[in-house]
């Protein structure tokens, strides 16, 4: 017999491993605050799918027309007051510059500057970061770790960072990326957090079409997931700030396998989808980056990381996953516009 958890304490009598896994969408928004951000907040609060959805906003704190303007600071305060999570997108006046091209001193200053603004607004340490164009290398990754910042990328991307008409293919785009996740779901390779599978979705609150039609996007996500037979949670979108942050951090942590190895503390292997690995020196592989999860479990990682040969062999066999066709379409459109790959926004 099924019992729903309530304040009176009724719970499902089955063991957690016997319960069916469900998926939940974790919404993120890049590059704000922006005049369109208010519309995005209204759609999250009231939409045809689920009211009072919470999101993670990766913001530009020092940009003169974004987070460093009076309207921008007011919008950041509103986002915090409405129960959303603030993460760092950029902490420079020039916007989200590619951090792999910064000197170590410039990178340190930008992170400290960005965190200072957000820490003052939220009253808590900033824990999440998303780099420009999602480009990073071992040096920038280590710097994030020193500042207790955790890198959150994405499973599904609306590709709305630039108004190039990608919204005309939004259903096909979501269907393509969800089909890739369906394959991983059937293979049981998606990270599980509290017996649900979080799916990180990326939008841009700077996009006028997204701001006007976010409710339609939310409906499309649910429709296409249902069409593919993916089991959704009865609340398909996370709607609590504490749960949102905890899920994001656990999703990051569960994206790695900690395997006993020759080094103290074990070896940490990157488990995010291959399309998310980029660096100015080529694609990063799981074997050449690490992760500091002290902020999650309170335990030190040990003096160093290394991947045992067996793990590297496994990485070699799994490191190249199929790239969704929508991503290649996005890249084609991007090249057609004549823009350099290093400055693309996703």
Binned, the helix content reads 25-40%
Spans where pLDDT lies below 50 across 5 or more residues? 1-13, 256-326, 332-346
Count of discrete structural domains: 1
Q: Please give the CATH class.
A: Alpha Beta
| Gross CATH architecture | Alpha-Beta Barrel
Q: What is the distance, rounded to the nearest whole angstrom, between the alpha carbons of the first and last residues?
A: 46 Å
Compressed to H and E, one letter per element, the order equals EHEHEHEHEEHEHEHEEHHH
Q: By helix and strand content, what is the structural category? A: alpha/beta
- Which fold does the CATH topology refer to? TIM Barrel
How many helices? The count is 10
Main sheet record? 6 strands, parallel
The shape is globular
The oligomeric state of the chains shown is single chain
Radius of gyration: 20 Å
> Please, what is the average pLDDT?
74
Strand content: 15-25%
According to CATH, the homologous superfamily is Glycoside hydrolase/deacetylase
Q: What does this protein structure show overall?
A:
This protein has ten helices and ten strands. The chain is of the alpha/beta class and 346 residues long. It has a single domain, classed as Glycoside hydrolase/deacetylase (TIM Barrel, Alpha-Beta Barrel). Strands 1, 2, 3, 6, 7 and 8 form a six-stranded parallel sheet that branches. The chain has a two-stranded parallel ribbon with strand order 4-5. Strands 9-10 form a two-stranded antiparallel sheet. Helix 1 packs parallel to helix 6, helix 3 packs parallel to helix 4 and helix 5 packs across helix 6. The radius of gyration is 20 Å and the shape is globular.
